[in-house]
Amino acid sequence: MQTLQKIALAALCGVGIAISPAIANSATPADQMENESRLIIAQEPGTIVDVASGNEDFETLVAAVQAADLVDDLSSEGPFTVFAPTDDAFDLLPDDVLAALLEPENEDLLTDILLYHVVPDEVTSDELESGGLDTLNGGLAIAVEPDNVVVNNASVVLPDVDASNGVIHAINRVLVPPGTLAELESRMAEDDDDDEVEPIPGLW
């Protein structure tokens, strides 16, 4: 039972594991078929949303994807490449900025930001080249260095996390398309009934 539980857990996390010959040989034919079926499932990663949801480092990203109603889009066939900000990356944003982005009235800005992290193709780390890379909401600047990949002002901290519909590269900062920051500042100023709003620190 513990072996089957481990297989099921691996399937949920998108991690493949192998069944030892001793266990396989001791099982009945029906058990072997079930084990083989579970093993196939375990070897197949879930969608980008599934993989992110199974990783505790992407909890804020998953919440943002849900708030922007992009779960179905990022669960579609793709393929996609997602430069995925970790929770630590979101923590660099001022609390009021993240809270504002998660408000329903700012869903369009949140969507703009999230789509700026999504490339409509699968690009693994060995395929990344210095230069421009088009996303679903504008272009990114890529700098490939000997021991680092920089995306705009963010660094890739974990490359090539496989998903059934693409690949995830975890990054250490949130990327924001040009113009979105100014619009967010304007809306936050209106909400505060101020003529001016203090500029958001350049953490983007």
If you had to describe this structure to a student in words, what would you say it looks like?
The protein is an alpha+beta fold. It folds into 2 domains: 2-43, no CATH class; 48-191, FAS1 domain (Roll), CATH 2.30.180. 42% of the residues lie in helices and 20% in strands. It contains 10 helices and 7 strands. The chain has a 7-stranded mixed beta sheet with strand order 2-1-7-6-5-4-3. It is globular and about 45 Å long. The model is unreliable at 1-26, 36-42 and 195-204 (pLDDT under 50).
Keywords:
single chain, 204 residues, alpha+beta, FAS1 domain, 2 domains, 7-stranded mixed beta sheet, 10 helices, 7 strands, 42% helix, 20% strand, globular, disordered N terminus, disordered C terminus
Largest sheet: 7 strands, mixed
CATH fold field value of the largest domain:
FAS1 domain
Proportion of helical residues = 40-55%
Sheet-strand content, in percent, reads 15-25%
Give the SSE string: HHHHHHEHHHEEEEEEH
CATH architecture of the largest domain: Roll
Q: Which strand order do you get reading across the main beta sheet?
A: 2-1-7-6-5-4-3
Contiguous uncertain segments of 5+ residues: 1-26, 36-42, 195-204
Q: Span between N and C termini?
A: 48 Å
CATH class of the largest domain: Mainly Beta
The count of β-strands is 7
- Fourth-level CATH superfamily of the largest domain: FAS1 domain
Task: Output the number of helix runs.
Answer: 10
Give the tally of structural domains.
2
The whole-angstrom Rg is 20 Å
Q: Briefly note the structural class of the backbone.
A: alpha+beta
Q: Overall pLDDT, averaged?
A: 80
